[in-house]
């Protein structure tokens, strides 16, 4: 495996740092200039609006993640800040000619695109082959793996999760009422607890086995 390259290293490449307040649009599919945005702090959500007016969240972008406005345009998605988000922005060398970049920067971009593809493959399996509890449990295990967990709460693993039940529902294709019921079922089964912006894995190993979760698909090591 190649050596890890801390995301902070890209600060030295001269990108433009910007901060977006919670709820504001970071980019849309009609943005003019192709850019690569790396999230230094906060949570963002990529989503599509369906013809019936409902929202489908395709991806949550976390610390170290990359937003490609070119990919956003091709997918006709909008990216909004879930929390206050700080990004560092660069011209998208994959779409603009004659832009030179250090080798490790190319590796960061390619690595993030590969991880994005792996997450989308899991998302397709989630939506097409898993039931409501499995979809929701898989999504929360994915987020916990990507953001990193701490251990407390009677020696259980947990992580801070700024998402609402509506956000989670939009990511797994369920209504808020259905998500509320699924979270209650997982709590009563002593699998997971979601309360006051915190996700607690009451039995992470059993939940991972139940939903067929493979955390290697969400490895955050930069290739």
UniProtKB/TrEMBL annotation:
Domain HTH crp-type: 130-205
Pfam families the UniProt entry points to: cNMP_binding, HTH_Crp_2
Keyword Transcription regulation attached: yes
UniProt keyword Transport present: no
Listed Gene3D superfamilies: Jelly Rolls
Family matches, as InterPro entries: cNMP-bd_dom, cNMP-bd_dom_sf, HTH_CRP, RmlC-like_jellyroll, WH_DNA-bd_sf
One of the record's GO molecular function terms: DNA binding
Keywords of this entry: DNA-binding, Transcription, Transcription regulation
GO annotation, biological process: regulation of DNA-templated transcription
Domain of life: Bacteria
Alphabetical list of SUPFAM superfamilies matching this protein: cAMP-binding domain-like, Winged helix' DNA-binding domain
Official protein name in the record: CRP-like cAMP-binding protein
């Amino acid at each position: 495996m190649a050596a890890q390259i801390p995301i902070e290293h890209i600060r030295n490449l001269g990108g433009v740092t910007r901060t977006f307040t919670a709820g504001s649009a970071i980019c849309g599919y009609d943005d003019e200039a192709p850019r690569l945005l790396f999230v230094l702090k906060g949570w963002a959500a990529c989503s599509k609006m369906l013809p019936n007016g409902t929202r489908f969240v395709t991806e949550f972008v976390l610390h170290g993640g990359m937003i490609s406005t070119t990919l956003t345009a091709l997918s006709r998605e909008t990216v909004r800040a879930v929390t206050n988000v700080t990004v560092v922005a660069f011209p998208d060398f994959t779409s603009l000619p004659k832009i030179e970049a250090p080798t490790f920067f190319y590796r960061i971009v390619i690595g993030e695109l590969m991880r994005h593809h792996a997450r989308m493959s899991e998302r397709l399996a989630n939506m097409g082959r898993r039931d409501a509890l499995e979809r929701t449990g898989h999504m929360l295990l994915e987020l916990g793996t990507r953001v990193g967990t701490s251990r407390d709460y009677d020696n259980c693993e947990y992580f801070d999760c700024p998402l609402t039940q509506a956000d989670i529902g939009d990511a797994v294709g369920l209504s808020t009422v259905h998500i509320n019921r699924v979270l209650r079922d997982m709590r009563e089964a002593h699998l997971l607890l979601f309360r006051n912006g915190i996700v607690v894995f009451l039995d992470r190993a059993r939940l991972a086995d139940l939903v067929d979760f493979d955390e290697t698909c969400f490895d955050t090591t930069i290739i």
